[in-house]
Amino acid sequence: MNRRKAIVNLLVSLGGITSVFTGYKFYSLHKKPHLDLLDRKQPLLNELAETIIPETDTPGAKEAGVGAYLVMLVKECTDTKSQNRFLQGLEDLEKYTISKYDKSFVDCNADQRENILLHFEKEGNPYKGLAGKVQQRLLGHSFFTTLRNYTVTAYCSSQKGATQGLVYDYIPGKFENTGLQPGQKSWSTN
Amino acid sequence: MGDSIPNLNTKKNTDITYDAIVVGSGISGGWAAKELCEKGLKVLLLERGRNVEHIKDYPTATANPWDFKNLLVPTEQDKRENPIQSSCSAYDESSKHFFVRDKEHPYIQEKAFQWIRGYQVGGRSLTWGRQCYRLSDLDFEANAKDGIAVDWPVRYKDLAPWYSYVENFAGISGQAEGLSHLPDGNFLPPMEMNFLEQHFRDQIKKQYKDRIITIARTANLTRGWNGRGPCQYRNLCKRGCPFSGYFSSNAATLPAALNTGNLTVRPFSIVSEVIYNTQTQKASGIRIIDAETKQSHEFYARIIFLNASTIGTTAILLNSTSATFPSGLGNSSEQIGKNLMDHHFRVGAEAQFFGLTDKYYKGRRPNGIYIPRFRNINDATKNKDYIRGFGYQGDAERQGWSDRMNDLPGFGKNFKAQLTSPGLWTIWMSAWGETLPYEDNRVTLDKDQKDTWGMPMVKINFEFKNNEKAMRKDMRDSAVEMLEKTGFKNISGFDYTPVGGACVHEMGTARMGKDPKTSVLNAYNQMHDVKNVFITDGSCMTSSACQNPSLTYMALTARACDYAVNELKKGDL
To answer: What is the mean pLDDT of chain B?
Structure first.
């Protein structure tokens, strides 16, 4: 079976499953998301991003201002389904954190933060490969995928991330084939 | 006009009579303006969009990624409001001011067709892909040999000196390879391949007798050239280059034309029609609608060059009706609007390479590699399923953060360390294929629906057909095979069936030909029916070949200008 056909078939069979929870689920994915909530979540987003890209010998996501970028990216560059999943994911994460550690994420220590994100990473990727792709098309990106990819994009495009976390060559002037230097970082722009 | 526009002689807009009028300031219109001005003609250049002054009007040219509000990530609003323009790979937050707003410039898609446009001085020469390849007699003889459409009225020997002429001014970097079906040009030094591209080139040479890999031939300057460049290897061409490192009308032809003192540019001038004089049997001038005031104005000239882009020029011709030409200016053949072509592409393969782990590069080369056509060159390379052929463009690179973020699992320190270090080498190669001219792939005007300026809306009916579909299978399979034979791993072929127009190589709707009964233009791009009208944009193309076409428009334009001015001098126009 060719790849395209396989996707179509999978869509059909998943369609059967998804129709069971259509009603509420459809509404919760397609409703107008409460994006204003995001502004208040910026401190939390900064800490989540910092857990994904922590400070090492180079700046972490928080120092690079990723929290504010995440608010912008979710508000302006994200489809409605993924926006709803993201907002729902943030709410779930806050509830999970309270129930598990009896405090908010920003008050958790590094190990606790890591455990919380591990939980949501697993939850965000129930299917591998093709099934995962179909799931993404139907439901939008998972909370964790959106969080992680936007954290990476924002960090690597930010001034701190692009120039210190990676190497930024503003005006290269020429093209050269080179060897890989010890500890070589990759270029921040293509 | 609101703004004062330095260097454009706009004060002379009150003048209404010129030696020549050029419609459109993109790649071919810029050349027409330059050539005619340098030959001493007083030229009026009409452009429907705003003025864009070289460097000064490139607001994003030196911006860093973090200077952009959305970090160059596409916004939902943009995708919603500009679904067509934003589908173009050159469109993003840094370049969208060089594309039209879809809402302001609607057209009718009888079948899906992405009409990508840049309405401004310089047109799409600001955002073009800059690939420059000569056509050859394999292309010019193809229609005659296959019995398709009509024969080209020119052969390579007619165009070769003009290719050289335009290359010498524009500056095209490339490597001479001695192929008769992809003739060498007058090249500036070639850009350098990276380590993996060199490996691929060497392995292909070992594995195949019928094909080679060369560095892409592009209008990027590898050394200072005619006061421009050189390229600084930033790979931000689509924003406009503050170093004049690549060819655009704004950087190259328009400054040369202005230098003569003979050029007047009139932005915001939407051409509604060419005015035909029944007595002289010539065009007497051009009627425009001022885009800002919506007032109509007329300008007169002895010769007219239409360079409004393929579909734009077609719309002007079809709207220029008269008693003599009830179906459009110079349309006694009824061919105007027919035979619309666009290259078909977005099919090929990508793969990973596990070696060369200690190699890297510095600088962002604004081009890739090119695999010239190797199918249906001769009997030995004949394919039984389709006629004509395709070339591959591609490039190799080490995965960066944007490639790695989707593959790397986890988060935290280890994730960060991997994310920020060079990943595997990868390669991407994708084919650009010839599309045949079909009569029913056509542009017409809608009688009932009008745009903001009262112009009838353009209607496009286009589809790829069986020859293209059969070719695509080979385009993908051959890419996979070449990567398999040269040491690549995790190879995956792809075929993202494209919508017409997506390649932004519209061609063919006012074709050249020998016979006035079956073609619109003669061997000098002169209208068979209206001798003082010349058309040298993509609409003149009799077949599409598989090469990126702009260099051919440049050569045809310079040649047509030379012919037109000689005819003027002889008193024949």
So the answer is: 96
Q: Tokens 């503050």 belong to which residue?
A: B242
Mean pLDDT within B42-46: 98
Q: Give the whole-angstrom CA distance, residue A164 versus residue A67.
A: 18
Q: Give the Cα separation of B393 and A46 in Å (integer).
A: 41
pTM for the full model?
0.94
Q: Taking the mean position of all CA atoms in its chain, how far away is CA B382?
A: 29
A&B contacts, CB < 8 Å: 144
Burial of B300 (0-12, 13-18, 19+ CB in 10 A): middle
* Six-digit token string for B299: 């300008």
Look up residue B262 and give its two tokens: 């003979």
Please tell me the distance from the alpha carbon of residue B15 to that of residue B286, in angstroms, as a whole number: 13
A148 and B405 in contact by Cβ < 8 A? yes
pLDDT above 50 (res B513):
yes
A76 and B77 in contact (C-beta within 8 Å)? yes
For residue B177, CA distances in Å to B239, B530, B553 come to 32, 41, 23
ipTM: 0.93
Task: Residue B277: name the closest of B532, B501, B99, B63 by CA.
Answer: B532
Q: What is the residue-averaged pLDDT of chain A?
A: 86
Separation between Cα atoms, residue B187 and residue B162, nearest integer Å: 14
**Which residue has 């882009």 as its token pair?**
B309
d(CA B504, CA B380): 32
CB-count burial class (<10 Å; 0-12, 13-18, 19+) for A99: exposed
Across the interface, do A165 and B420 touch by the CB < 8 Å criterion?
yes
Alpha helices in B116-246 (DSSP H): 137-140, 142-146, 156-170, 195-207
Q: Is A87 left (phi over 0), alpha (psi -120 to 50) or beta?
A: alpha
Please give the single-letter amino acid code of residue B531.
K
User: How many angstroms away from the CA of B162 is the closest CA of chain A?
Assistant: 30
